[in-house]
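#struct-pred
JK: can someone run the complex with magnesium ion? inputs below
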Amino acid sequence: MHDDVEKVLIDEEVIERRLDVLSARILEEFSGREFVVVVILKGALVFTADLLRRMPIPLEIECINVASYHGATESSGQVDFLDAKLPAVEGRSVLLVDDILDTGRTLAAVGEKLREQGAEVVKSCVLLSKDKERDAEVDADHVGFYIGDEFVVGYGLDFRGLYRNLPFIGVLKQEVIKDGR
Ligand code: IMP
Ligand code: MG
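RT: done, structure tokens with the ligand placed:
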């Protein structure tokens, strides 16, 4: 698997240190008020697991399954909600967690959905934010790292469902993306 990687963009240690800061800032943001964490699957799984273990408070975790890439390296532009039932967030404060802010459609669509479901406050956190123009007007309240407009994998992010278990954020070799393994 590591042979398929062209370069490591953000290594494990750097991610770890950044999560220490991010988790503290998020706790500060909610300043003692209770909140429920809504994880956007599957990309935010690894990030959220590490982030939340740095928060020494009793937390509730809910998941939401959406898809927008459909196996390619460009967003399809459509956000599909894959769950039959959405998390019950009425009257709650929510921390919404995603892996990456790209076109912004996912975060915008899920944020809107949660507000529709009655969430009182929705704050968002993403591991990565791509430096590009967004299709949706949305910004994350907490960002791990800003990166260029390139396709990355690892630490939860996939290419055609694979590479989520790489412990760092990296860029795949061109031939791997072309062969589409
Ligand atoms: P958006 O709706 O375009 O902002 O895209 C967000 C979703 O697209 C993320 O939750 C990821 O699952 C996926 N995505 C966007 N950029 C990348 C990337 O560089 N690598 C892997 N997945 C990505
Ligand atoms: Mg994805």
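RT: quick notes.
The domain at 13-148 is CATH 3.40.50.2020 (Rossmann fold).
Residues 5 and 172 are 4 Å apart (CA to CA).
JK: thanks, will look after standup
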